[in-house]
Amino acid sequence: MNKTVPEFFLNRLNEAYGENLSNKIIDGYVSSRKVTLRVNTLKATKEEVIKAFNDNNIIYQEVDFYNDAFIIDNVKENDLWKLDIYNEGKIYLQSLSSMLPPLFLDIDESSHILDMAAAPGGKTTQMAALTSNKACITACELNPLRAEKLKHNVEKLGATRTNVMVKDARQLDEFMRFNKILLDAPCSGSGTLDLTNEKTFIYFTDKLIEKSTKAQLALIKKGLQILSKGGTMIYSTCSILPSENEEILKQILKTGKVKIEPIEIKTSLPLELLPTTLEGVICVKPNEYFEGFFVSKLIKL
């Protein structure tokens, strides 16, 4: 047995992916992940950020699937915190995997967008930037402390057409309507485990996984209730467990009121995808560039 993860989780991994692939997933957890960020185009241009990198001797790579994203090669996050471009909200530190869901939502300046579990605001403010602050965005967060962090980031990054609601999205009025919904659902975080932190498995338990699946199912049902007919929902998690991903979608697909729209990522970066039990969805294997992440695109019929 691999001693780096608890037996309950190893069993879940082996059941989903087999022993060989499970060991590769565990190797991915211990990889030293690259520092990544995106330009906040509401406050800065890409050229302005590149100049700041050059002025501070920061070595960077561009990201081929997202024009506003960078991989940083020679400094850590806490070094970036000292830069004016960080403190002025001109860049936002965000994992490459976390940047994926908004890119698949097909939003534009006329969109009415709901972000159902929005804190700390990375994807919320990314959507504001992608729509040049012209789309109406409603961002929900039920935890008051996390909602304060969300409000802080919305303000810092200049997302002026974003309305933050300190509310459980499951309790939204059933008569509300949105044509684009992002549900980056609360999850166990099984794609982002830090095996170097001895406290990780105090919080990461079978009970957390079970609690997460109940919340995920309730949230996706509510989201589809208030999604306009023909509208798009992205359902994503930072989990790689089928119980939080495909199994949730299978329950929704049974209603016949929603379909999966296939998605794919084309990139020269070392992106590795895990096998899934549904076609058209993606599950990213953790490695030095990407966190473990699941993304699916749904259309309401």
Task: Describe this entry's structure for a reader.
The strands form 2 sheets. Strands 5, 6, 7, 8, 9, 10, 11 and 12 form an 8-stranded mixed β-sheet that branches. Strands 2-3-1-4 form a 4-stranded antiparallel β-sheet. By secondary structure, the protein is an alpha/beta fold. The protein has a domain at 96-300: Vaccinia Virus protein VP39 (Rossmann fold), CATH 3.40.50.150. 35% of the residues lie in helices and 20% in strands. The mean pLDDT is 96.
* Content of β-strand: 15-25%
Overall mean pLDDT stands at 96
Radius of gyration: 19 Å
Overall helicity: 25-40%
Total helix count? 10
Q: Which stretches of 5+ consecutive residues score pLDDT under 50?
A: none
CATH superfamily heading of the domain at 96-300: Vaccinia Virus protein VP39
The first-to-last residue Cα distance is: 46 Å
The assigned structural class equals alpha/beta
Please write the string of helix (H) and strand (E) elements.
HEHEEHHEHEHEHEEHHEHEEE
